[in-house]
Each structure stands twice: as C-alpha cells, then as structure tokens.
Design goal:
Blueprint (H helix, E strand, L loop, with lengths): L1 H15 L5 E5 L1 H4 L8 E7 L6 E8 L2 E9 H10 L14 E5 L1 H27 L6 E4 H15 L3 H10 L3 H21 L3 E5 L2 E4 L9 H23 L3 H15 L6 H4 L6 E2 L2 E4 L5 H9 L4 E8 L6 E8 L4 E8 L5 H10 L10 H17 L7 E5 L4 E5 L4 E2 L3 H4 L2 H20 L12 E4 L2 E4 L11 H14 L9 H14 L4 H6 L2 H4 L8 H14 L2
Parallel strand pairs: 2-4, 10-14
Antiparallel strand pairs: 1-2, 1-5, 3-4, 6-8, 6-9, 7-8, 9-10, 11-12, 12-13, 13-15, 14-15, 16-17, 17-18
Helix pairs in contact: 3-4, 4-7, 5-7, 5-8, 6-7, 6-9, 15-17, 17-20
C-alpha cells in the first residue's frame, strides 16, 4: 500500500510541476469499504497553487487515483473558519493516513475538531440552556452531530459516512476519528471550557462561550452547505452536465435504507446521570422502550389527569407481569394562551416562562437541582426534547388539595405546617416556585413532593408563593372548608417562621397580592383571609 501511494505522490508532483507540502490518503480504500474498481483518494496540499482547488483523475501504475489538489492557504481557511464549506477540511472528520508532513496534517485535524467541539457546544447551550450543568457529552456526540450536519447540507457524503462508521471496520474507524477529538478536548479542558467526567465523556465547565443565536447558527450551516456545492463545482473543472450527473449519482447512492441511530439522532448519545435524553419525537411506546431498553413492555392504559391537562398516567405491564405507573408531562403550545393571560394579569407581581421549550427546560433543570439538594420531587426517567415531554415515576401519594378528604384536621394542619417550613427553606436557598398550587404538592407517608416546577426560578417574589398557596387553597379548593381559615394560616405561618422566614409573611398580606384573586372570589372572603395572614405574621 505504501509503495502505491509513494508512486502516486511522485507522479502528481511531476504532473503539477510543484513540490507537495503535505498529503494524506482517505476514502474507501483507507476506511475499508472499497470495491475492486474504487479510486485511491488523496489530498495534496500545495503552496501558492494558482487553481486553489482541483480534482485530478489519473491512473498510476494501473491504479485509479482521485487527487484533490488544494492550495495551502485555501485548505487552512477551510479548517480554521469553514470558509469553503468544509468541502476539503471535512475529510479530516473521517479516517485518513498522513503521507507527507504528518505533524502539519495532525495539527490541522486538531484545529478542525477543536472548532467543531466549540460550535457544537454553542448549539447545545442554545438548545438546553441551564441544563448544560447536568449534561454528560461523549466525544462521539461531537463526531456524529457534525457528520449529520454535513450530511444534511451535502447529501453525497451520506453513503461514505454510513460505510465508514457503520461498515465492517466501523468501530476501528470511529476510534481513529476520536483520537483527534481527544487531543482537541484535552486542549479545551486546559482552557477551562470542558471538564472530563469519564472515559471520553465531558461536561461544559465554562458558560462564557462566544456563541451566535440559533437563527444565525442555522444560517451559518446553510451557508456552508452552499459553499460546499460551489467548491465542489469549482474543483471538478468539468462541463456542468457531467458535474450534475456525477452529483446526482452520489446522492442516489446515498439515499435509501434506515440511518444508523447516532447519525439519525446524535442527541441519544448525551445523557444526564440516571436519565435518558432524546431530541427526536417519540410516541409513548417508543419512549417506554427507550427507558426500559429491551424489557418487554405492554401499555395497558393511558389516562389524562384532567380535561385540559397535558399530564398523563400510563399503566404498563412489564415482562414479569408486574404493573408500573409512569407519568408523562407534555409541554404544549396550547398552554401559551393561559400563561400569556396570567402574565398580563400578574404583570406587577411575577414573570412567567411562556414558551413550551422554556417551561420544559425549566422543569427539567429544577427537578435535578432541588433533587440534588435532598428536596423531594418527581424522579425523571426520560427527557424527550422532540415533543417536549418528561417521563417520570408515578408518586403514589395524595395531592395536598385532596388532604381533607383523606385525613383528619390535625394531620392536615401538621402537613400544612410542613409546607410552610419547606417553602421557607426553599426561599432561604434563593428559590421561588412561581406556581405553588396545593394540587402541585403530593403527600406520601411523611414526605412532601413538589411536582410542577415549570415556573420555578431564582429571581421572583417569594411573597407570591405564600399568597398564591394560601388564597388558592381557600378559594379554589372547596375541600378545605372543614379546616378553619385561622387554624390553616396559623399552621402555615408557624412552619414558615420556623423555616427562617418572617418578613415575607408580612409583605404577603399586602393588598397587592390579594388583587389577582378579586375576579374569582368576593371581597369579604378575601379580606378575611388577608386579615388572618396579617395577624399571624406578627
């Protein structure tokens, strides 16, 4: 093999009348999926090459060679800045063999893959936001995410990617490509951008990335796709008809068949400890299969928890015959109208997350954060980005809004005391719940679980949490009629005081926090609640 390439280098150096600065072999012969008549693909880097980029198809010692000759500066522009759509530089993502000037080729590979990691990190930050604190990113994600982008922008590469990374020598070729990513990632660890958390697994450690917004990112990749076509046409130097025929042939060869999962959805490679993540839209059965892997799952029932609710309880039967209950919460655009109206009505009191994406990310983020602090919340199993859904284990308890129907008054008041204590604890840590309705808290044994965190935040008014819970409990939860309002508020305020809060209770009795409930309850009832809160807050 070496002698074949050595002869080719001598041949092309004489053909070009120039010395070759650097060279590498790539393609089917190197990747291990060549047929008898496949070309030997090489890239020749030449200084001050007047044509900038050009293909040569020649026979050397009876062997068919496809030589992509590129100007050194042109090549470096493509590596460092993707100015030519990565048409030439993109070969460094796959497996290759340096032939001349090994150190130069490998330094460009590192530069390319370092830029790739930074760009892919920016995309992850724009997509997942504050969740990046928890996301583990394997090096293979950077490889396959970039390959997918190039494949979508420039379909002819699809065939070679599938054959290279999922053919007979797929594992070997993946390992060869990851070597360059390891060097690049090590540089970024030293720069403080990444933290290594496992074998070839990293987390983002710096949020000070210089990232364009998602719209500009999409434009950038579209631009690169266009530049790839332009560079391809420029390099071919053949009549347009022949170029289009060749291009059509490459696309047709790459179409058909199911894409391997990492190329179809690279986000399946990233994960949060104990939680699966996917960016693709999944139906309920597919989601359950991804959670429980190869275990046999039979969906027995899917039940909506309310008429207009986007939360579902799923009863499933596993292979051992046992019944499990899974909760799916879907963040839909149908909820936007509700949150917009609430935001207008409460504009002087609090700020709400409106879009499904923001509410989804918020709920995922804070379920992980407060769970890590020992505060009980739902246990997530799968975060499905594609359809903005969270799958979690069912909590077998009683919603606080239903307490008076299940327990006597004394136990209800004890639980209300504990809610006040829990809320003061959260406020002391800087957290605000934002939407603290009794329906969103579940009592199980001696534990309280917070289950609705889509408006959780660290910037809001803690007094709104207090006012909403108290007013909401007594205005919209008719079951509490058996518990005197004075005793209810006394239990809550005593718990809140013991949890470390006093000033917030006083401010929560202001008329400002009563106003939002005027449209759903008579003034005299609201006034009674307010005066009780004011009295118990002293």
């Amino acid at each position: 093999m070496e002698s074949i390439y050595r002869s080719a280098l001598e041949y092309f150096s004489e053909l070009l009348g120039r010395s070759i600065y650097a060279a590498l072999a790539y393609g089917s012969r190197v990747a291990g999926y060549a047929t008898e008549d496949s070309d030997y693909d090489i890239i020749l880097v030449v200084e001050d090459y007047p044509s900038l980029v050009r293909y040569y198809y020649e026979s050397v010692d009876g062997k068919p060679f496809s030589a992509l000759v590129v100007d050194k500066l042109f090549f470096e522009e493509d590596v460092y800045h993707a100015r030519h759509g990565e048409f030439v530089a993109g070969r460094l993502y796959t497996v290759f063999i340096p032939l001349i000037n090994h150190e130069y080729i490998e330094s460009l590979e590192t530069a390319l893959k370092k830029r790739t990691i930074l760009e892919e990190l920016c995309d992850l930050v724009s997509r997942y936001g504050s969740l990046m604190n928890y996301i583990n990113i394997p090096l293979m994600y950077f490889l396959f995410s970039r390959l997918r982008r190039r494949m979508l922008a420039y379909p002819p590469v699809r065939y070679s990617y599938i054959k290279t990374f999922f053919g007979d020598r797929g594992k070997e070729n993946i390992e060869a490509s990851l070597k360059g990513f390891r060097v690049a990632a090590a540089d970024l660890v030293r720069d403080g951008v990444l933290t290594q958390v496992g074998d070839d697994v990293f987390k983002l450690s710096s949020r000070d990335l210089s990232c364009p917004n998602r719209f500009l990112v999409r434009l950038r990749y579209l631009e690169r796709g266009i530049k790839s076509y332009i560079t391809h046409g420029r390099s071919a130097r053949v009549p347009p008809k022949i170029f289009l025929q060749e291009f059509h042939s490459k696309i047709r060869r790459g179409v058909g068949g199911e894409l391997p999962k990492p190329l179809k959805d690279p986000h399946i490679l990233i994960h949060i400890d104990g939680v699966r993540v996917t960016s693709s839209t999944k139906n309920v059965y597919q989601a359950l299969k991804s959670i429980f892997s190869d275990e046999f799952i039979l969906v027995r029932r899917v039940k909506r928890t309310g008429l207009f609710s986007n939360t579902y309880i799923i009863n499933i039967e596993s292979g051992d015959g046992g019944i499990r209950r899974i909760v799916r919460k879907h963040f839909s655009y149908t909820d936007i109208f509700k949150w917009v109206l609430l935001q207008i009505w409460l504009i002087d009191i609090c700020r709400f997350k409106i879009s499904p994406s923001n509410r989804f990310i918020n709920e995922v983020n804070y379920s992980l954060r407060i769970g890590g602090l020992g505060i009980n919340t739902f246990k997530p199993l799968l975060f499905s980005w594609g359809d903005k859904s969270i799958y979690s284990m069912y909590i077998n308890g009683v919603r606080v809004s239903e307490l008076p129907l299940r327990y006597d008054k004394d136990l209800v008041l004890k639980i209300i005391y504990n809610i006040g204590y829990l809320l003061a604890t959260l406020h002391g840590k800087g957290f605000r719940i934002g939407d603290l309705k009794p329906h969103n808290i579940i009592f199980d044994g001696d534990r309280l679980y917070l289950t609705d965190l889509e408006q959780f935040n660290e910037y809001g008014d803690p007094c709104w949490d207090i006012a909403e819970f108290i007013y909401y409990s007594y205005i919209l939860t008719s079951k509490y009629k058996s518990v005197p309002i004075e005793e209810f508020i006394e239990a809550f305020t005593e718990g809140y005081k013991h949890g470390g809060g006093v000033d917030n209770l006083k401010r929560a009795s202001s008329l400002k926090y009563l106003r939002p409930f005027l449209i759903i309850s008579p003034w005299n009832r609201l006034h009674k609640i307010r005066m009780s809160l004011k009295k118990m807050s002293t």
